[in-house]
Amino acid sequence: MRPSPISRLRLLVPIKRCIDYAVKIRVNGSQTGVDTNVKHSMNPFDEIAVEEAIRLRERLKDQVKSIKVVTIGPAKAVETLRTALAMGADSAIHVEVPETLVPEPIGVAKTLRAIIEQEGGVDMVIMGKQAIDDDAGQTGQMLAGLLSWPQATFASKIDVQADLKSIEVTREIDGGLENLKCRLPAIITTDLRLNEPRYASLPNIMKAKKKPIQKLTPADLKIDLAPRLETLKVTEPPKRQGGGRVDNVVELIEKLRVAGILAS
To answer: What pTM was estimated for this model as a whole?
Structure first.
């Protein structure tokens, strides 16, 4: 799918409501998952994506037409959208699902594809490289495959070319840095070192309450988000045993032999 030639960039930023990074995760009583009755916030990698979209507009001025954020989640996820709007996004889409439904990466990617097709064109999708709850790190790549768009993952720097036809992305790899050039439209996933997200000011928080949020359901997009995977059981890792002290190396070796770590 190739939109018409780009005159002004339309940015789409998918975000996710996750358990806050500072919360200590605990398994729920039924061992079907983790306890979600705790503080939630925007996925940190998605905050970086929102910040980068805003910085692109600050650098490119009128060449950025719009910044739209989208989330798939329960009714409470609207709070996460308001946070992104307060940071500087223009509008939002909320695909509302039941609290108990946790969409899998392929379902999220298909939903985003449907939204892009419904919107009539998006020039760049900027999204976090992974969510801190499932750590899947798959949605961006799947979306690029579904759309047949170029992708640049784990971006630590993004430069849009003056003609708005391509971007140059610096990404971190094991051996150092890799520079990629992608034609637009494209998918970008953000790494930690891309930027540091701003705090929303009080006036912007108040303005965000008036910004539009479009409500959709999976049925509106003709998407089935039913899980393909079943979680059988979730348990906490075994508690670590307390350590001990020895007076010398001979005693250490003897203890290791008793424990079966060293052969006799």
So the answer is: 0.85
